[in-house]
């Protein structure tokens, strides 16, 4: 097959650290692949999707797996078989962070088996790789022909000694009052998850805004990389929309939409809200 020529672009985090995203060198037979590098930290992601949906498929079978190999720290597994174990709870949680951010951006009616695998292939003690997992996944999708509405990314935002920091080092988080991961497209925030001490709503909103601004830079880098890749990345597969039952849709809109909207905006207590929704269902 010959030597593959990588295509790459880079951007800087707000504190000046450089991040490089690259494609074309590894997993050339996958629909899309990407490598994210910052210092000695390196994540690799491959994205593969079936050309057709299975017969009778009624849901979108997307699987996202984030894996941290012992080799990323220069070690060999210490068990008898010298093999990697199943995903840890931490790896499962990172997989879910990525899944929740990207799943809504696949088109309605797309039912093809799709697999996203993210591997940490080199790590540093001070760098938290979980904040780069979604960037790797989105970049792999951006340079593929898999239908995907828009690139996304995720960043960690921490409030440390009164200052917002994007993707802080592990040791810096020890003094964090707030630690959240924000996922977003260029225009919308899609996911927020985190922990922290009690902070005001204003502080939380500002943290989300700081994260979104950092994400916009990362998305722009993905769009530039897709342009460099060319036709494969810019022309996505055609999706045949799944036929909908218009009669059912019209009935639901006529009998439930307004009532549900009134309950949702009514700021009712939890029990009363649940009772009202149950009444609408019956």
Structure in a nutshell:
Helices cover 33% and strands 26% of the residues. With 282 residues, it is α+β, with helices and mostly antiparallel strands.
Description of the structure:
Helix 1 links the parallel strand 5 (62-68) and strand 6 (114-122). Helices cover 33% and strands 26% of the residues. The chain has two domains: 7-234, GHMP Kinase, N-terminal domain (Ribosomal Protein S5, domain 2); 246-281, no CATH class. The protein is α+β, with helices and mostly antiparallel strands and 282 residues long.
Task: Please supply descriptive tags for the structure shown above.
alpha+beta; 4-stranded antiparallel beta sheet
CATH architecture of the largest domain: 2-Layer Sandwich
Q: SSE string, helix = H, strand = E? A: EEEEEHEHEEEEHHHH
How much strand? 25-35%
Please tell me what the overall shape is: globular
Helicity range of the residues? 25-40%
Secondary-structure map:
Blueprint: E1 7-12, E2 18-23, E3 32-38, E4 41-49, E5 62-68, H1 89-102, E6 114-122, H2 130-142, E7 153-160, E8 163-166, E9 176-184, E10 189-196, H3 201-229, H4 231-234, H5 246-265, H6 270-281
Parallel strand pairs: 5-6
Antiparallel strand pairs: 1-2, 2-3, 3-4, 4-6, 7-8, 7-9, 9-10
Helix pairs in contact: 1-2, 2-3, 5-6
């Amino acid at each position: 097959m010959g030597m593959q020529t990588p295509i790459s672009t880079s951007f800087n985090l707000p504190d000046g650290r450089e991040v490089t995203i690259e494609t074309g060198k590894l997993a050339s037979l996958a629909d899309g692949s990407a490598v994210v590098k910052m210092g000695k930290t390196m994540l690799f992601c491959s994205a593969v999707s079936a050309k057709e949906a299975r017969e009778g498929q009624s849901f979108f079978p997307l699987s996202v797996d984030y894996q941290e190999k012992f080799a990323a720290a220069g070690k060999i597994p210490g068990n008898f078989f010298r093999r990697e174990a199943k995903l840890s709870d931490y790896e499962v949680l990172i997989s879910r962070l990525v899944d929740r951010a990207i799943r809504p951006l696949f088109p309605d009616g797309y039912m093809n088996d799709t697999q996203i695998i993210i591997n940490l292939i080199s790590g540093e003690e001070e760098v938290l790789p979980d904040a780069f997992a979604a960037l790797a996944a989105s970049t792999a999708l951006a340079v593929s022909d898999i239908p995907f509405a828009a690139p996304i990314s995720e960043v960690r935002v921490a409030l440390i000694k009164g200052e917002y920091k994007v993707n802080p080092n592990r040791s810096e988080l020890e003094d964090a009052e707030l630690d959240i991961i924000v996922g977003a497209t260029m225009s919308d925030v899609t996911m927020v998850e985190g922990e922290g001490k009690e902070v005001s709503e204003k502080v939380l909103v500002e943290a989300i805004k700081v994260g979104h601004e950092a994400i916009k830079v990362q998305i722009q880098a993905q769009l530039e990389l897709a342009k460099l890749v060319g036709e494969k990345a810019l022309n996505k597969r055609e999706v045949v929309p799944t036929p909908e039952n218009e009669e059912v849709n019209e009935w639901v809109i006529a009998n439930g939409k307004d009532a549900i909207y009134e309950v949702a905006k009514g700021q009712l207590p939890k029990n009363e809200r649940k009772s009202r929704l149950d009444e609408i269902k019956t």
